[in-house]
Amino acid sequence: MKHLCHIWTTRSRITCRKVSGMICIAVSPLKLTFTMMRIKKLSAAVIALFSATFLLSGNPTTKTELILKTPGNDGVSYILKEVPTGNGVTEYQSSDPIPLEISAVQKPHGSGYTISVTITATHDVWFNFKQSISAGNALHNDCQFYMPGFWYRRNLRSPKEAPSFHTSDSWLVREDRLSTPLTSILNETTGNYYSILRKDAFTTDAYTPHTHGEVILSGETSIGFTGFENIDGKAFLSYGFPHREAPKSYIRKLTLAPPVTAFYKLNKGESKTIVWEFNHGKATDFSDFVAQIWNYSYKSLKPEPVKLSYSEPEIKKVLSNFWTESYVATNDLNFFSGIHLLTYECKNNGSAEIGFIGRVLLNAFFALEYAEQTNNEALKNIANSIFTSYLKNGFNKAGFLREYVEHDFKAEEEVLSIRRQSEGAYAILHYLNYEKQKGRRHPEWEAKVKILLDNFIKLQNPDGSFPRKFDADFNLVDASGGSTPSATLPMAMASKYFRNKKYLECAVKTGDYLERELISKADYFSSTLDANCEDKEASLYAATAMYYLALNSKGKQQQKYIGLAEKAAYFALSWYYLWDVPFAQGQMLGDIGLKSRGWGNVSVENNHIDVFIFEFADVLVWLDKMNKKPDFSSFAEVIRTSMFQLLPYPGHMCGVAKTGYYPEVVQHTNWDYGKNGKGFYNDYFAPGWTVASLWEMLTAGRAEQFFSK
Fold first, then answer.
1. What pLDDT is stored for residue 530 in this prediction?
2. Do the beta carbons of residue 519 and residue 564 sit within 8 Å?
C-alpha cells in the first residue's frame, strides 16, 4: 500500500519535506497570492470567488486523499495535488496513474463558497474520496466541535463506550447520523467558526455486507461522511464520499466497533458529482455558534412540511385505539400497558410506568378529555378508573408516586427520579385543572399532590437543582442536576393552580440553576433516564421550563425567560432533522416512504430518531410570536406533519401489530438499539410515551390556556 501523508501548504510556495520516511508535498490549493498579483483582468465573478474563499478560511491548508480498491485486495491510498485551471476550476492529480479524472468547481456565496467535485472513471473502479480543510489556522486544542444531533463540544458527558474525546480527538462519521449533514468547528480563542454542509440530493442508500473494515457497496448510495480531525495539532474539517467512520464506528448502544471505509463503483465512462458548501462566521460563544449554524442550515436546506393523507380528527381516532386496547385493570393499579412491548405482538403486560416511557397518567388525562369530547363512555370509564386506582394505590408512604411497577413479577422500582415524579405531577395538575373547569373538585387528589410537591421542595438543593435519582427516604442515588427542568413545569403550574408562592419560588430557583449551569454554559445533559450523556431532552425540557416561567411572569423577568427559552430552543432544534435520510430498498422505513425531516435524534448514546416533542412545537410558535422567529413556526409545522407519517391503521400498519400503537425506536442510520438495524424498529418499544407526545402536540396552546385562567 502507498503511504498516507499530509499536504502542507503555504501562501506563496510549494514545499517538499520528508517526515518519518514519507515524502510530504506542499501545494497552495488556491494559489491566491500569485493569482491575485499576476492576473489583472479577472471578471467580477471570479474576483468574488477568490475573495470569498480567502475570507472564509484565511488561506487554508487542504489535504485530498483517494483510496482505490480492487475486490479481494486491500485499498491503495493516493495523495492528490490540486491544480487550479482557471475560472474556479481545480483538477486533482496523482503522481501515479489512476483510473479516474477528478475536478472541482467553486462558486461563491455570501459567507463562503460551494464546491462541486466530479469524479469520472476512465476504467471500472471502486473508490473512496476524502478532503480535509483547516479551520483557519486554529490549534485543535483551542477548538470546540459540533455535528448537529450527534456531537457537542467534545462529547465529554458521554462515556468512553460512545463517540467522545475520551476515545479520540478526531472523528469521521456517516452523514445519516447527523440531523444536518454538517460538521463545524469553533475557535474559542478568536470566535471564528467554519462549517461544511453537504448540499446535493440524497436519494438512495445501499446495503453493506459488513459494519467494519473495507466494504464494497451493493449499489447506489448518496451517503457520504463528515467530521473533524487533529492533523499535526491543527483543527481540520473533513468530508468525503462514500461513507467512512473512524477511528471507530458506532453500531449499537455503548458499542464502538472497528473503523469502516465504503467503496463506490464507477463503470468506465460514468461520473459522480458531490456538492459541499463551506461557510464561515464569528460567534460570541458556543450557544451563539449553534444558533447561527441552525439558522444557516435551515435557510440552506429549506425543509418543507410533509403532505399527509389523513386529517387531525382521523389521527386522534387512530391513536385513541391504543388507550382502548392497552388498558389493564389489576387489584392494585389500573394503567395503559405501554412499555416493553414487542412491535410484532403489542401484547399487554404488567408494566405500569408513571412517566418517562409510560406516561400513564398523562395518557389517562388525554383519554378522559377525548372521551368527553366524543361521548365515548367506555373510554371515559377507563380513564377515570386509572385516576381512581392511582389516588388509592399510586403513592408510597413518603407521598411520592409509585413510578414503575411490574405487576407480572410483583416487583417495584425503589429508586425514584425527579423526571418521572415531575411528569406524574404535571399530568395530575392538568387533570385537576380540567376537572375544576368542569365543576368537579377532587380534594383528596389536591391533598396528595400537595404532599408530593412539598417533597419536591425538600429535595431541592440550595443551588436550585434537583437530584436526578433518589429513594423514598430522600437519600440521593444520582445527584446530577441534568433533569432539573422537568420539575420546573409542575412547580410553575402548582403556583397557578393553588395560588401559592412557595411553588413559584421553587420554580424560579430551578430557572436560576438552569440559566447558570445549563443554558449559560450550553451544557445540556442527562435528562433521559436510560443514558448519561448529551441529549435532546435536556435542552427541550430547559426551553419548555423557561416557557412556563415566562408565562407565569411579567415585564423584565418575562423578557429574561424568553431570551433563555430561545437559547435552549436552538439546542433542542439542533437535534431535529432538516433533511431526509435515504434508505436502501428492502429497508422498511424507506420502502414505506418515511421522510426523516422533522424527527429528532435522541442522544449521543442512542442514535435513533423518535417523536419526542410534547409541547416543544408550542414553544417554537410562541417564541416566534415573542421574538419574531418565523423559521421557528415554519419548522414547527414541518415537525407536526412529519411526525405522523408512521401512524398505524389498517392498510397502513407501518410494521407494528395494532392500530394506534405508534412506533418508538426508529432506526434511521447504521445503528441498532438491539435488533434489526437501519430502516427498521427495535423489536421492543414503548407506545405509551409516543402516543402522549403526539397527542400533546395536537392540542396546541395548552400551557398558555392553563396560565391565562
1. 79
2. yes
- The reply to whether 654 falls in a domain is no
The region that residue 122 occupies, defined by phi over 0 for left and psi between -120 and 50 for alpha, beta otherwise, is alpha
DSSP 666-684: EE-SS-BSSSS-TTEE-SE
> Which pairing describes strands 666-667 and 680-681: parallel, antiparallel, or unpaired?
antiparallel
Please list the residues that pair with 182 across neighbouring strands: 197
Q: Say what the pLDDT of residue 59 is.
A: 67
- Nearest 5 degrees, angle CA 561-CA 562-CA 566? 115
User: Quick one: pLDDT at residue 42?
Assistant: 33
Report yes or no: 147 and 173 within 8 Å, Cβ to Cβ. yes
Task: Match 435513533 to its residue by C-alpha cell.
Answer: 608
Using DSSP's 3-state secondary structure scheme, residue 706 falls into helix
**How many alpha carbons fall within 13 Å on the CB side of residue 609?**
32
CB contact set of 515 (below 8 Å; sequence gap of 6+): 564
Terminal CA-to-CA distance of the chain, rounded, Å?
Answer: 73
Find residue 86's DSSP bridge partners: 89
Tell me, yes or no, whether 49 lies in a domain: yes
- The Cα 597–Cα 149 span in angstroms is 13
CA angle 577, 583, 588 (to 5 degrees): 105
Kindly report whether the peptide bond that precedes residue 687 is cis, defined as omega within 30 degrees of 0.
no
In a domain, residue 282? The reply is yes
Domain with 421, as residue range(s), is 416-575
pLDDT at 389: 98
- Write the DSSP assignment of 332-344 as a string of letters: S--EE--SSEETT
Q: What is the 3-state secondary structure (H, E, C) of 23-47?
A: EEEECCCCCHHHHHHHCCCCCHHHH
Q: Helices 443-459 and 485-497, interaxial angle, to 10°?
A: 140
How many residues are present in the chain? 709
Task: Report the 10 Å Cβ neighbour count for 120.
Answer: 16
pLDDT along the chain (709 residues), means of 10: 32 31 32 30 36 48 96 97 91 96 93 95 98 96 98 96 98 98 98 97 92 94 98 98 98 97 98 97 98 98 97 98 98 98 98 97 98 98 98 98 97 96 98 97 98 98 97 95 96 98 98 97 86 91 98 97 98 98 97 98 96 98 98 98 98 98 97 96 98 97 94
Residue 1 exposed, middle or buried by CB count within 10 Å (0-12, 13-18, 19+): exposed
Alpha carbon separation from 583 to 406, 409, 649 (Å, rounded): 38, 40, 23
Q: How far apart are CA 151 and CA 135, in angstroms?
A: 17
**Can you give the pTM of this predicted structure?**
0.92
Contact (Cβ atoms closer than 8 angstroms) between residue 209 and residue 230 = no
CA angle 66, 71, 72 (to 5 degrees): 115
> Total structural domains in the chain?
2
E-strand stretches of 286-396: 327-328, 335-336, 341-342, 351-353
**Residue that terminates a domain, selected from 280, 301, 322:** 301
Class of residue 324 by CB neighbours under 10 A (exposed 0-12, middle 13-18, buried 19+)? middle
C-alpha to C-alpha distance for 496 and 704, rounded to whole angstroms: 12
Q: How far apart are CA 692 and CA 690, in angstroms?
A: 5
Establish if 562 belongs to a structural domain: yes
- CATH of residue 451's domain is 1.50.10.10
Last residue in a domain, options 301, 335, 360? 301
